[in-house]
Description:
With about 250 residues, the protein is mainly alpha-helical. The chain is about 70% helix and about 0% strand. Helix 1 packs antiparallel against helix 2 and helix 1 runs antiparallel to helix 5.
Amino acid sequence: MAASGSGGGSSRADNGYGSQQPRRRKGPGALATAYLVIYNVVMTAGWLVIAVGLVRAYLAKGSYHSLYYSIEKPLKFFQTGALLEEYLLIAKYLPGIVPSSVVLTAFQVMSRVFLTWAVTHSVKEVQTEDSVLLFVVAWTITEIIRYSFYTFSLLNHLPYLIKWARYTLFIILYPMGVSGELLTIYAALPFVRQSGLYSISLPNKYNFSFDYYTFLILVMISYIPIFPQLYFHMLHQRRKVLSHTEEHKKSE
């Protein structure tokens, strides 16, 4: 989940594969830009709140175990807020500002929301797992950088440090986030199987059955084709963006 990336998350990959040049899209107008700036500033602040909450809880407890409870509410709020981004930012506006792959981004956003609510929230037993902290930390660092990146890009004043962090730290954060997500889903499996959570058995009037346990296994398997695409595409983007920046600096 996003593959995530965390880093959980999210990669914003370009739409062009091969030699064909992607079509330029018109960026947002002044009103839309103002809205997007406010949205990204709020999301940056929200993930900073989560980061501060983690640090304060760690200092108070003297342990990294079970820190999830200290940031549970803001995590749910701001991670769910990414759904608004998926519709307004990715589908409508951001393609005109930064290169983006809607399919990969959608997977990353939806997978994180799914993990937040349908796994971590729904299966209480996994909330004390260290794997939860693994993906929460990866998501938090990734999102602070990503929303800062979007904010400064919209303002046409992007510091090199943020650009570098956006296209470099994912190398560690994405595998870290994905590992935490997969381990958390795996830890939830026995509890889901035992409780029959979200499963529908036959017979019923709809003549339909659903096994949530099997569904979670399929979700885990889906990481196999999705995460490498996300990760290697970001590596390609890193070479493309940072090398272009270096060339631009040399030409000045």
